Amino acid sequence: MLVIAVTHSQKVADSGTRIVKVEEGRISDDIYLKDPSKAVYESGQDSSRSLSLLASFKMALKNMKLNGKRNVLVALGDL
To answer: Which of 11, 12, 22, 74 could form a disulfide with 7 if both were Cys (CB 3.0 to 4.6 A apart)?
Structure first.
C-alpha cells in the first residue's frame, strides 16, 4: 500500500519509510529511512475505524480555531 503524507512536521515525516523534500517545486532531497517491507504498524491494532461525520467536523473546527492565523495566511496566499 502506498500512503503519501504531505507535512511540515518532522515527527510525522520520521514515521514513514521515505522522506522526499521539495523546495521551490523541485525535489531537493530523497531519504530512505527504512525498508518498506519491514515497516510495522506500531499501535498493536490490526484494524482501523473511520471517524463519524460529526467527529470529523468537530476535529476540523478545532484545527481551524487552533491554526486560525495560518489558515488566513494560506487563504490569502491563494488569491
So the answer is: 12
pLDDT tens profile 22-31: 899 999 999 9
3-state helix, strand, coil in the chain (%, to 5): 40, 15, 45
Q: Give dist(CA 16, CA 70) in Å, integer.
A: 25
The whole-angstrom separation of Cα 60 and Cα 21 is 26
Instruction: Name residue 42's amino acid.
Output: E
Please answer whether residues 43 and 57 qualify as being in contact, where contact means their C-beta atoms are separated by less than 8 angstroms: no
Q: Could you give the CA distance from residue 54 to residue 51 in angstroms, rounded to a whole number? A: 8
**pLDDT tens-digit profile of 7-21?**
888 888 888 889 999
Q: Are 60 and 71 in contact (CB under 8 A)?
A: no
Candidates 67, 64, 45, 44; CA nearest to 56 is 64
CA–CA distance, 64 with 74 (Å, rounded to integer): 12
